[in-house]
Structure formats: C-alpha cells, structure tokens
Amino acid sequence: MSQHSSRRVVIVGASLGGLRTAEALRAAGFEEPITLVGEEPGLPYDRPPLSKQVLAGAWSPDDVTLCGKADLDALDVDQRLGCRATAVEEGRVILGSGESVPFSDLVIATGVAARRLPDQPDGERIHVLRTLDDSIRLRDHLRRSRSLVVVGGGFIGAEVAAVARGQGLDVTMVEVLPTPFARALGTEVGQRCAQLHLDHDTRIIVNALVTKFEESDGGARVTLGDGRVLEADCVLVGVGTSPNTRWLSGLGVDFSDGVPCDEGGRVDGRENVFAVGDVAAWHSPTYGHRHRVEHWTSAGEQARTVAHNLAGKPPRRNAVQAPYFWSDQYGTKLQLVGRPDLAERVRILEVPDKPGSVVGTFWRSSRIVAAVTFGAPVVLARYRPLVTAMASEEDVRATESRLALWPVR
Amino acid sequence: MKLHVDFGKCEGYANCIIAAPDVFSIDDSNVVIVTDSEPPDDERDAVEEAVRSCPVAALRIEED
Ligand SMILES: Cc1cc2nc3c(=O)[nH]c(=O)nc-3n(C[C@H](O)[C@H](O)[C@H](O)COP(=O)(O)OP(=O)(O)OC[C@H]3O[C@@H](n4cnc5c(N)ncnc54)[C@H](O)[C@@H]3O)c2cc1C
Ligand code: SF4
After folding, report:
1. Is the CB of B43 within 6 Å of ligand 2?
2. Dihedrals φ, ψ of A49, to 5°?
3. Is the minimum CB–CB distance between B34 and chain A shorter than 8 Å?
C-alpha cells in the first residue's frame, strides 16, 4: 500500500456512510492515515430507529450507536468528532475552528438536513426529525402531549404518526398533494398506505398547504391555505430533506441535487474526491442517469465501493443497483425495491393467506421498475432480482403465479 | 461457511431475506428463520450481503 507515500483520506460526515467507509478501508487493508470529521459530538449512531424504537421509548439512545468507543479507537483513525467542516480548498478541508486538514483523497458523507417550511419557528412545540437530539426531544414531548399534527405525508411523518397513535395521541396528517406518500409510492400505492393510517384513526387532510405556524404556552396552531386552523400540543414537520453541500462550494461543482458522482462514487471532474450516502447522486448504470438515494442500505454499499476503489483495488461500481428501503408503520413492514418514480403504471396484487398484505408493482413500458410490499417480506425478496434486472412482464408473471399472487381490481 | 444468528437481537427487519431469500425466511412473530444454516459456497455473496444489511448485526458467518 505504501507506494503512495503521503496519502491521507479525509472523510467528512461521521455517520453511517462516513463510518462505514472508514471501516471498509481498514478491512480492505488500507493502512495510510484516515481522518474522520463529524459535526455531531457523540459516537456515530443509526437513524432508522429514531422514528421507530427510540421515539416509542422501546430503545434507549445507547441502543443506536453504530460503533462502540473501543471499536472506533481500534480503527486507528484521527477522530474529529464535534467538528464542522466549513469549506474545502485545494487539497484541504477547513474546520469550524479555523484549522485546516490536508488530504490526498476526500470522501464526502455529510448526508442531508431536514427541510423546514418558510417561517417555521424553531420553538418548543414544532419539531423536525433528523438527529438523535431531535428524536429525544420529540419523544419527551409526545409523552406530554394529547394531540399531534404531522405536516407532510412522507415516511418520517408516517412513522411518527404511527408511534403517536400507538401512544393514544390524536393525530392529524396534512399533505399538500391529493394523496399522501404519492411522491415516493405513486397515487395508487400511496392511497393504500394512507388507508393504513385511516384504519388506525389517523386523520388525513389533503390538498392543504400550511401557510402559518404559531406557538404559545397553550399549544401550537397550524393555519392552512383555505383558512382552516389546526390546534395541537405538538407538531412534526416532515417535508423532505436538503443535501448538506453548502461547505463544498469551493469545489466548483453543481450541487443542485446532491454531489454528482460516477458509478464508482467519484465526484464529477475530481480524481480524488468521492461521495457516499444521502448526499451523493451516483450515476446508475441500470437506470442510465444520476439519482440520489436516501436509504440505509445504499449508504453502506456505497461506502464499501468507495473504500474498495480508494484502497487501490480494481475499479468497482456499486453492486446494489436497485435501491432498497423499509419503513415500519403500525406494526406493518413496508418494503420497497427499485424506483417507483420512473413508473408509468401500477398493478396491485394480493398475497394469499395474509389478509391485508399486498404487493404493488411498478411498470415502465413492459419492464418492472419497482415493487413494494406491505407485510410480506418473503414476497418482496422474490421481486428483488426481477426489479434489479428490470424483468419483462412474462418473467414477472411466472414468478407471481408461483407465489400464487392475485391481482386486485 | 456456517451461519450464526443472535435471535435475541433479531428485530425482524427482514433485510436478510431480501439479500438471500434462499437462506433466510421469517416466522409469523417476525423473527428470522434460517432455512439453510450451512449454505453452499455459491450463496456466499448473498449471505455476506445479508450479514451486512442486518441493521442490528444479528447475523454472523463462522468460517469452517
Ligand atoms: C428518522 C429517520 C428514519 C429513517 N428510517 C429509515 C428506514 O427505515 N429505512 C431506510 O432505508 N432508511 C431510513 N432512514 C435513512 C437513513 O438513515 C439514511 O439513509 C442514512 O442515515 C444515510 O447516512 P449518511 O451517512 O449518508 O448521512 P447522515 O446519516 O445524514 O450523516 C451525515 C453526517 O454528517 C454530518 N455533517 C453534516 N454536515 C457536516 C459538516 N459540514 N461537517 C462535518 N459533519 C457534517 C452530520 O452531522 C451527520 O452526522 C431514516 C432516516 C431518518 C432521519
Ligand atoms: S435482517 Fe437482521 S433483524 Fe432482520 S430479520 Fe434478518 S436477522 Fe433479523
């Protein structure tokens, strides 16, 4: 390895993507110095439980660490936790303290931040959910609350709504589109997901734009475009994310939707800069374009690919080509493989012997581009290779008849 | 290759099933079932992916 004499890999972002990159570099036998810079002060932790087990109080914050102190120390990386990277200049990362850290190779793993609505106050009662601190604050507040308004029909809002209903709160979800979850799942499957919420007495208001937030000691008020006012003890805003790229302006790349990378994670036009995880928009050979994927599994797989390429092994591109995502709502596991956003049409099928379990399949021309299951992991597993291969209708039907799945009209 | 499952840790995420459907399944109470605890070598890539994709690190490969 040491034919590159003065190498130092600097990884910025010490969460799933950044930590996994460091681990995979060491596992690949990379012995040169590594610096891991992360804005959050504590040990790296895992985010999916923040809207599930941690929020419900089933897990303590200690249960979500991705890596114990001893394991982190054993990686032998220069740890800069609690340090924010503020800029990147030729061959150097600048930290908030003013210090500059030189690199031979840079890995960008700064993830995304929860988006806020215009004029959204940062008060006691109005929450977003991205970090462990956010989760604990919201958990504690839910315990003291009788009602919750969720602004935004997305997965984070859905999981928070489910946890809050589980604790007996009165929950209202507000969505600007005609169907919640449509952005991720399309209208038909989005409607199915909405039904799950309605079945659990979560109220849903659609076609509603939030125009005003107010907070007082007595509660929060959310005003909608048509003048309606919703009052609640607690409000969660889950309206998507924006990539943490502001510190990267010195690279002179267009970051309008994440960091553009090739199919091995190398940033466009930069020989020695890579990006992984939620912040990165990798080129996908399967789909023929760049796409940012905010899924747990992708961050780990991309980290492994980048570490492999950085360790000087034969170039490799990402192994997982169809993105995979799961979500837990009211005890039902929703799992998604592929790209529903590319679909032109949808078919919904019923799973035998599993009341309420359905599969949605998403089609572009006569190829399958995504599948989503509610409460049927074993079925989703059989669709995954089909979606990865963008299989034909004939091949998909052969599998479906083997699984005895029946279309729902 | 031998598979070790920590059933106390398994949270039923089912990610392992997605990665290696011929080796893992899940029971009605959402706990993983190993259908083949000594999977053949051609399942290695899939099993390694399953091990990595388990969010609670409940799976481990023991080399013979
Ligand atoms: C509540 C919640 C629930 C989720 N549930 C699921 C799920 O069920 N299934 C699923 O597949 N995915 C889920 N996800 C998504 C998954 O957690 C992400 O895909 C994953 O965290 C991405 O990891 P990352 O390392 O790319 O980014 P992040 O985890 O966002 O990490 C980025 C890190 O970089 C740090 N950082 C940012 N800017 C700087 C800077 N300038 N300098 C230094 N450090 C910086 C941040 O503080 C952060 O620690 C969920 C996410 C959230 C928030
Ligand atoms: S991925 Fe892990 S937690 Fe999930 S079912 Fe498999 S073993 Fe259990």
Report:
1. no
2. -70, -15
3. no
User: Ligand 1: does its nearest atom lie under 6 Å from the Cβ of A23?
Assistant: no
Best of A20, A378, A379 to mutate (most B CBs within 10 Å, chain B): A378
Q: Does domain B2-62 have CATH number 3.50.30.60?
A: no
| Segment A80-118, tens digit of pLDDT | 999 999 999 989 999 999 999 999 999 999 999 999 998
Q: Per the structure block, which two tokens stand in for A292? A: 């940012």
Give the residue extent of every domain in chain A.
Answer: 9-113+242-310, 116-239, 331-407
| pLDDT (tens digit per residue) in A232-281 | 999 999 999 999 999 999 998 889 889 999 999 999 999 999 999 999 99
- CB of A58 less than 8 A from some CB of B: no
Q: How far is B4 from chain A (nearest CA, A)?
A: 20
Query: Residue B62, Cα to own-chain centre: how many angstroms?
Result: 12
Task: Say whether A116-239 and A9-113+242-310 share the same fold.
Answer: yes
Which ligand has the nearest atom to the CA of A335? 1
Top CATH class, A9-113+242-310: alpha beta
Domain A116-239 = CATH 3.40.50.300: no
The overall pTM is greater than 0.90: yes
Query: In CATH, what class is A331-407?
Result: alpha beta
Write the ipTM: 0.80
- Contact B26/A at CB under 8 A: yes
Looking from the CA of residue A86, the nearest atom of ligand 1 is: 41
Q: Is the CB of B58 under 6 A from ligand 2?
A: yes
